[in-house]
Design brief:
The complex is a heterodimer of chains A (369) and B (638).
Chain A: H1 4-8, H2 12-36, H3 40-61, H4 67-88, E1 90-92, E2 95-100, E3 105-106, H5 108-126, H6 134-152, H7 157-174, H8 178-198, H9 201-211, H10 222-233, H11 245-248, H12 260-293, H13 297-321, H14 339-357
Antiparallel strand pairs in A: 1-2, 2-3
Helix pairs in contact in A: 2-3, 2-12, 3-14, 4-5, 4-6, 5-6, 5-7, 5-13, 5-14, 6-7, 7-13, 10-12, 12-13, 12-14, 13-14
Chain B: H1 2-9, H2 16-50, H3 52-61, E1 64-69, E2 76-77, E3 83-95, H4 103-114, H5 118-126, E4 137-140, H6 145-152, E5 161-170, H7 178-181, E6 184-186, H8 189-193, E7 205-207, H9 210-214, H10 216-220, E8 224-230, E9 236-243, E10 250-253, H11 257-267, E11 272-278, E12 283-290, H12 296-300, H13 304-310, H14 321-324, H15 334-344, E13 352-355, E14 358-361, E15 364-367, E16 375-378, H16 379-384, H17 388-398, H18 400-409, H19 431-438, H20 444-451, H21 461-473, E17 476-478, E18 483-487, E19 493-496, E20 501-504, H22 509-524, E21 541-547, H23 552-557, E22 568-575, E23 582-588, H24 594-613, H25 628-635
Parallel strand pairs in B: 2-10
Antiparallel strand pairs in B: 1-8, 2-3, 3-4, 3-5, 6-7, 8-9, 10-18, 11-12, 11-23, 13-16, 14-15, 17-20, 18-19, 21-22, 22-23
Helix pairs in contact in B: 11-24, 15-17, 15-18, 17-20, 22-25
The chains are: A mainly alpha (369), B alpha+beta (638).
C-alpha cells in the first residue's frame, strides 16, 4: 500500500528537527533531574519513544482527511474529558488538571490544544467563505467557549488564553474583515478592566510583576528574577553541562517543566540557546511550508493550526523565562517534562507529516482517487 | 458506509486564487515568526552577553537558603487525657555538603567531637549521597548535651555543620502499648519516591506502625519554612521571611492508662497478647502484645544486636500479637459450638451425653482432656468443665459447614475491622477450603478436632475479645475502635470516633442466656476450669482454653516438653456477669493451661478495672441482690 510518492513527499527536515529536539530535551532533563533528585529523564524517554511510534504510525496508517468526519467525536471526547477532570481530577498544587490512568496521569487540557486545532480546521473547511465577518464567527466562538471555560475553571488561565490564541490564529488564516478586526480590537481593550476584576490575586501579581519587574524579588517575581539570573549567568559559552549553579542548587523552581529552557541557557550559554532556537525555527518553518503548499483547504488549516500551536508555545514559554511575557504555565514542546505535552506535540507533528505526505493525492487531474 | 468513505477522499481542492491567498498568509506567518526569533536572540544577547557579567556575579552571590521549620508533633493521650506520648526537643548535628570546602579535614575534626569513627560518619553521608548537595544531612541524631556543647563552641571552624532542633517523642509513663502507638523512624526511600507523606524528605522521622503510622498526616502537622540569606560559608546574614509551622493534631485513644499498665504488668514474662474492651461500645481499653519493645530506640538508630533481639524468632517483639498472632482457639471455641448447637436445635440445655474420656470414630480414638471422664454431661457441665467428648458429639451432628457458618457469624475468619494495617484474618476451614488447599477431601476426624477449637482453625486474640464482648452484651458484634477523638492544637474537636455495631449474632436471646449462665459457672463453680479468675466482690464469666501445639501421641514420649512444644493458654472473660463493663481475652504462648496461667492474668486486669471504678462502693456477694443463685433466677427463665 505504501506509495513510492509517499516517501518522496515525507518531510525529512521536519522529522530531523523533532529528533534533535527530543535529543536535547533528554540531555537537558538529565541535568534537571540531578537538581531535583528524581529521575525524570527516563520517564520522558518512555514518552518520547511511545510518542514517536505513535507519530510514525499516524503518518503511515492514517489519512488525515478522515478527521473532517470525526471532528465532532473528537470535540465531544475533549469536552467529556475536561468535565471528568472537574469531578474525578487529581489536584496538584491547588489546581485540578490531571486524570489518573494508574500508570500515568494525563492532562486533558494539553490534549485539548490539539483537539481545538482539529475541530476548528474542520469547521472552517466545511464553512468555506472567502472572508469572515463577526456574524460568521459566533458559531465557532461558541464551540470554543465550552473547553475554555472548563479549563479556566481548573484553574489554568494560561491554557485557557492559549486556546483563544489558537482560535485567533485560525481566524487569521480564514481571513477576517478589516472592520471586524478593528471592532474586536476595540472591544478587547475596553474589556480589559472587567477582566482584571475576574483575575485571581496571584494572577494579578504576575501581571504587575511583569509590568514592574523587581517590584517584589522574593515574592511573586522570584521565579522570573531567578530565571533571568540563570540565563544571564550562562554568558556566551555557558557554565558547562550539569554545572549550572542556579539549577543545581535549586534556586530555579520547576527546572524540569516550565523553566527547562533556563537550565539549557545557563549550562550551554548564548550559542546553545541560539542553536535550540534555530532548531525550533526549522521545525516551525517546515510546518508553515506544509500549510502553504497544501492543495486543499482542510490540510492547509490543519497544518497552519498545528504549527501555530507549537509556535505560540515556544514564544510564550521562552518569552516567559526571559521575562518578556508574564508567568504562565505553558510547556516548551519536547523540552519540558510531561507525557501529555510530548504526546500532543508528537501527534501534532505526525499530522503535519501526514498532510505533507499525502500531497500527491491532489496532483493534476487526480482530485479524487 | 462505502459511499461515505468515498466522499471523504473527495475533498475540495484549492483553485489558483485560493492557493495564492493561502501561500500569502503563510508567508506573513513565517515573517512574524522570524521577527520573534530575532527578538529572542537579541534578548538572549542582552541577558547573556551585555548583562552576563552582572548576572554571573549575582548567581555566585545567590545564597538564599530555605530552612524548614518543624511543627511539634501531635500528642497521643489516653481516654482521660493523660499523656501517653508527648514531644521533647531532639538535637541533631547536620551537614550541608555544598558549604563544605575540604571534606577530609572536616571529617577529621568532627570524628573526635562526635565520638564516632570517620568511616561511620562517611557511611551516614554516603547512604544519602544521591540527594541534592544543598539538602542538610543528619550525621548524628539525638546528640547528647556534652557533644552539643563541644560542637557548638567550635562551629566557626566547621563550615557546613549546624545543629538542628527537631521534635522527638517523649513517653512520660515509659513505653505504653508500643504496638498500638507505634514508633517513629527515618522515612524510607520508597515512601519518598511514592510521595506518601507530603513535604517529607530523607532523614525525616515518620510514624512506622500503629497509631503513629495510621495518623501520620494528622499528627505530623504542616511544616513551615524560613528563608535566610547566607554568606559563602553558609553563615546567616539575615532572615528574609518566615511561614510558621502548623502543629499536629492531638489524638485521644480509648486506652485507659491504669488498665493498660496493669495489663502489661500482668503479661510480663509471657509471650502473648491481651485485649480488654468495653463490651457495650466496642472501645478498646487495653491492648498488650508481649514482649514489648522500646519505641525510642528506632528514632536514634538501632545497632545490629538490638535489631537481632527485636526480630527474635521465638518471642517476635515487633509483631503485634493481638492483631497478627494466629492461634488455635482451643476450648474457647466451645462458646461458638454451644451457641450453634442450641440455635440449630441439636441439643437443649438438658440434653446430655456420657463422657468416658474416650470417643471412638472409625478406627481412631479421640480423648477428653480429663482421663477420668466427666460421666453424664449436659451443656452447662460441658462448658464449665470443658468436656471434649460432649463437643465431639455436637460437632459430628452439626457438621463442618454449619460449624464454619457459626464461627464466621461470630466474627472469626475475617478481619474485625479495627483501623490498623496488617490485621490478620485468621482461618476458618470449610470443605471447599481444604479441597482447594490440600486437594484432599474433608475427614470426619477433622470435624471432631475443629469442634474443640483445634485443627485448622486460627484466630487472633482481638477476634476472641470481640466475640466475648458480643456474648456479654447480648449479641452485638462490634468493630473495635481504639480512638476517642482528635483535637486541633487549640483543643476543639476535629473528629469524634464512634464504634459501629458490625453485626448481630444469629443466636436467640434465650440461648445466649444459657451460655452466659454456663460461662459464669466456669469461674464461679468449684469444678469450673476458670476458677482462678474468681473475684471476691464481682462475678466474672469466662472460658478457658488450652491449645495443643503438637499431637497427642508425641507428648506421651517425653515427659518434660520443650518450651516451644508446650500448650498455649487462653482465657476469655467478662465482668460483672450481670452488667458487663469489661471483656478480656488473654493468650500466653507455650505457657501451659488456660485455667492456671491465663485466668490469673485476666483476674489482675479485672481487679485493676474495678479498683479504678471506685468511688462506687463495692458490695460483697452476701449484701448484693445479685448473687449466683439470684442470677440463675433472673437470667435463666425456665
Amino acid at each position: 500500500m505504501l506509495d513510492r510518492r509517499f516517501l518522496e513527499h515525507f518531510d525529512w527536515w521536519l522529522f530531523l528537527a523533532v529528533l534533535l529536539l527530543m535529543a536535547i530535551g533528554f540531555v537537558n532533563l538529565n541535568s534537571g533531574s540531578a537538581a531535583t533528585g528524581y529521575p525524570f529523564q527516563w520517564k520522558q524517554l518512555q514518552w518520547y519513544i511511545a510518542g514517536t511510534i505513535l507519530m510514525l504510525s499516524l503518518v503511515i496508517f492514517f489519512d488525515y482527511r478522515l478527521l473532517t468526519v470525526y471532528s465532532v467525536h473528537i470535540y465531544l471526547i475533549m469536552v467529556f474529558m475536561l468535565i471528568l477532570v472537574v469531578f474525578i481530577g487529581k489536584t496538584v498544587g491547588g489546581s485540578q488538571r490531571w486524570l489518573s490512568l494508574g500508570f500515568m496521569n494525563i492532562q486533558p487540557s494539553e490534549l485539548a490544544k490539539l483537539a481545538t486545532v482539529i475541530v476548528l480546521s474542520s469547521y472552517f473547511y466545511h464553512d468555506d467563505r472567502p472572508q469572515y465577518g463577526l456574524t460568521d464567527l459566533w458559531r465557532p466562538f461558541l464551540l470554543m467557549l465550552v473547553p475554555i471555560f472548563l479549563i479556566y475553571h481548573q484553574p489554568d488561565l494560561g491554557t485557557a488564553l492559549f486556546l483563544m490564541l489558537i482560535f485567533a490564529s485560525l481566524v487569521y488564516m480564514a481571513r477576517l474583515k478589516w472592520t471586524s478586526f478593528l471592532l474586536l480590537l476595540g472591544s478587547a481593550i475596553a474589556a480589559f478592566p472587567v477582566a482584571w476584576e475576574f483575575l485571581k490575586p496571584y494572577q494579578r501579581d504576575r501581571i504587575m510583576d511583569f509590568i514592574f519587574p523587581g517590584r517584589d524579588p522574593l515574592g511573586a517575581g522570584y521565579h522570573i528574577s531567578q530565571s533571568k539570573i540563570a540565563i544571564g549567568s550562562g554568558q556566551i559559552l555557558g557554565k558547562g553541562y550539569m554545572k549550572g549553579s542556579q539549577a543545581q542548587l535549586n534556586f530555579l523552581p520547576e527546572v524540569h517543566t516550565d523553566f527547562a529552557f533556563s537550565i539549557w541557557a545557563e549550562e550551554w550559554g548564548w550559542f546553545g540557546a541560539v542553536i535550540l532556537l534555530g532548531i525550533f525555527f526549522l521545525m516551525l518553518y517546515r510546518g508553515f511550508l506544509i500549510a502553504s503548499q497544501s492543495r486543499e483547504r482542510f490540510g492547509a488549516f490543519l497544518a497552519f493550526g498545528i504549527t501555530a500551536m507549537l509556535f505560540w508555545q515556544v514564544v510564550i514559554n521562552i518569552g516567559m523565562v526571559m521575562g518578556l511575557v508574564p508567568v504562565v504555565g505553558i510547556p516548551l514542546p519536547l523540552i519540558s517534562y510531561g507525557g501529555s505535552s510530548v504526546f500532543t506535540t508528537l501527534i501534532g507533528v505526525g499530522l503535519l507529516l501526514n498532510v505533507r505526505s499525502r500531497r500527491f493525492m491532489f496532483q493534476k487531474g487526480t482530485g479524487t482517487r | 458506509m462505502k459511499f461515505k468513505i468515498k466522499t471523504i477522499w473527495r475533498v475540495k481542492r484549492f483553485d489558483r486564487l485560493d492557493q495564492e491567498a493561502n501561500k500569502q498568509r503563510c508567508d506573513v506567518a513565517v515573517l512574524i515568526m522570524f521577527l520573534f526569533m530575532v527578538t529572542f536572540c537579541a534578548r538572549l544577547w542582552h541577558l547573556q552577553v551585555v548583562q552576563g557579567e552582572h548576572f554571573r556575579e549575582q548567581s555566585e552571590r545567590n545564597r538564599i537558603r530555605s530552612v524548614r521549620l518543624q511543627p511539634p508533633r501531635g500528642k497521643i493521650l489516653d481516654r482521660t487525657g493523660r499523656l501517653l506520648a508527648g514531644v521533647k526537643p531532639c538535637f541533631n548535628v547536620c551537614l550541608v555538603r555544598e558549604d563544605v570546602g575540604d571534606m577530609e579535614a572536616l571529617l577529621a575534626k568532627l570524628s573526635p567531637l562526635l565520638g564516632e569513627t570517620e568511616a561511620g560518619i562517611r557511611t551516614r553521608l554516603g547512604s544519602e549521597h544521591k540527594g541534592p548537595k544543598y539538602v542538610p544531612i543528619v550525621i548524628k541524631r539525638g546528640a547528647e548535651w556534652e557533644t552539643l556543647s563541644r560542637i557548638e563552641s567550635r562551629l566557626f571552624s566547621l563550615p557546613g555543620v549546624f545543629i538542628e532542633v527537631t521534635p522527638a517523642r517523649k513517653y512520660p509513663y515509659g513505653s505504653i502499648a508500643p504496638h498500638l502507638l507505634g514508633y517513629l523512624g527515618e522515612i524510607s526511600r520508597e515512601d519518598i519516591v511514592k510521595e506518601r507523606y507530603k513535604g517529607a524528605r530523607l532523614g525525616d522521622l515518620v510514624g512506622k506502625c500503629g497509631v503513629e503510622e495510621r495518623f501520620e498526616n494528622d499528627l505530623a502537622g504542616i511544616k513551615g519554612r524560613r528563608r535566610l540569606e547566607v554568606d559563602a560559608g553558609g553563615r546567616l546574614v539575615r532572615v528574609i521571611d518566615e511561614k510558621p509551622p502548623v502543629p499536629g493534631k492531638d489524638l485521644y485513644l480509648s486506652i485507659d492508662l491504669d488498665l493498660q499498665q496493669a495489663s502489661e504488668e500482668a503479661m510480663k514474662g509471657y509471650v502473648g497478647a491481651l485485649v480488654a474492651l468495653d463490651p457495650q461500645t466496642g472501645r478498646i481499653l487495653a491492648l498488650v502484645s508481649s514482649p514489648a519493645f522500646d519505641p525510642d530506640a528506632f528514632a536514634t538508630g538501632i545497632n545490629n544486636e538490638e535489631w537481632k533481639a527485636l526480630n527474635d524468632p521465638v518471642s517476635r517483639p515487633l509483631q503485634n500479637k493481638a492483631l497478627q498472632g494466629r492461634y488455635a482457639p482451643a476450648s474457647t471455641f466451645k462458646i461458638v459450638m454451644a451457641a450453634a448447637a442450641l440455635q440449630e436445635g441439636i441439643v437443649t440445655k438438658n440434653t446430655s451425653f456420657k463422657c468416658t474420656s474416650r470417643f471412638r470414630l472409625g478406627r481412631s480414638v479421640f480423648r477428653c482432656w480429663d482421663w477420668r471422664g466427666h460421666g453424664r454431661t449436659n451443656l452447662y457441665k460441658a462448658l464449665v468443665e470443658s468436656c471434649d467428648i460432649y463437643f465431639y458429639q455436637v460437632g459430628l451432628k452439626l457438621g463442618i459447614e454449619k460449624i464454619a457458618k457459626y464461627a464466621k457469624a461470630f466474627g472469626l475468619g475475617s478481619k474485625t475491622g479495627i483501623d490498623l494495617p496488617n490485621e490478620s484474618r485468621g482461618l476458618i476451614a470449610t470443605l471447599d477450603w481444604k479441597l482447594g488447599r490440600y486437594h484432599e477431601p474433608w475427614q470426619e476426624g477433622e470435624t471432631l478436632i475443629t469442634a474443640i477449637g483445634q485443627g485448622f482453625t486460627l484466630v487472633t486474640p482481638l477476634q476472641m475479645a470481640c466475640l466475648t464482648a458480643a456474648v456479654a452484651n447480648g449479641g452485638t458484634l462490634y468493630s473495635p475502635v481504639y480512638l476517642e477523638k482528635m483535637t486541633g492544637p487549640d483543643g476543639h474537636i476535629v473528629t469524634s470516633f464512634e464504634s459501629d455495631p458490625k453485626d448481630k449474632l444469629p443466636i436467640s436471646e434465650a440461648n445466649l442466656r444459657i451460655i452466659r449462665r454456663a460461662l459464669l459457672g466456669v469461674v464461679e463453680d468449684k469444678k469450673g476450669t476458670g476458677k482462678q479468675c474468681k473475684l471476691p466482690d464481682v462475678h466474672v464469666a469466662g472460658k478457658t482454653g488450652t491449645a495443643q501445639v503438637i499431637g497427642q501421641d508425641k507428648r506421651r514420649q517425653d515427659k518434660k516438653l520443650d518450651w516451644e512444644h508446650r500448650d498455649h493458654a487462653w482465657f476469655v472473660a467478662y465482668a460483672p456477669a450481670e452488667k458487663p463493663e469489661l471483656a478480656v481475652a488473654v493468650l500466653c504462648e507455650h505457657a501451659g493451661h488456660g485455667g492456671s496461667v491465663a485466668a490469673p492474668v485476666a483476674r489482675k486486669v479485672f481487679e485493676t478495672w474495678f479498683q479504678i471504678q471506685s468511688p462506687l462502693p463495692v458490695l460483697g456477694p452476701h449484701k448484693t441482690a445479685f448473687n449466683v443463685n439470684n442470677i440463675e433466677l433472673l437470667a435463666v427463665s425456665y
